[in-house]
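Appendix B. Chain record.
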Amino acid sequence: MTITDRTRKILWGRSGNRCAFCRAHSVALLVGATETDDDSVVAEECHRELLVGATETDDDSVVAEECHIVSGKPRGSRYDPTFPAERLDDQDNLILLCSVHHKMVDDQPATYTVESLQKLKRDHEQWVASALSKSKVPRQPSLRRTEENVPSQLLRLTTGQDVMRTLSGSYSLEFGYDDPQSDMEAELLHEFAQEIEDWDDLSPSEEVRAVHRMNMLLQQLEDAGFRVFGDREVQHLEGSPNSPLPWLVAMVRIVRSANPDIVRVGIGAGEEAKEAEAAKGTSEKHDLNACGKAD
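Structure tokens predicted for this chain:
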């Protein structure tokens, strides 16, 4: 199982681009000791937004993390073996936190219990709904695309690391493929799709194994006559306070090697240049303009 795009939109919309913990609690600031006084803890109100605005030299930065209230991993915080596996990635089992408070609640599960986080989530989402009702009629969360961010071509993905870089940090996945023509092809496509669905919230050790499995899958797909292409697109989430918010979407396509939408780029005139580019595995791109841009 993995968190669906619809669940993410609902979670972000109801959370109002705010860390549930930051809004509800004062943040303890430690002031260092002086020659005459001990350390002092000063509380100040915090309303931390989960989007750091762009600067003159850098893009916006999303510092939000989607925290599971009940973990699905035996070593995870607040793990409950009786909790239904199909509900782990439901909106009701997720709470939007900043990275600081995500680590804090996971490091201190005896303090931040399932019940306390559920109450924190309810109170925060009620506060957001109340704030919206006082300002304007809330809209359903939706994604908006901007023409300048839509890639015209997807890059060839030849290694598990290529796929990992494409998916890393994304909040949504747009996945497409050429129709399978046999049970074997259908199983290959299914296995690839299942693999990338399971890549949500991997630990470093799990990532190593996932990349290795993906390398084997990519080779099997190539042997079966398929190519894998991908890229990333920044869309914008609307329908919550401080909208629009940047929303990173990963795009992955599996197409047949004979697909006419594949174009070769950067090829020199000589045969040596052709062979060198082909060996790199990066001389092909999937032309989205030829087949129509993703909806």
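Further analysis of this model is presented in Appendix C.
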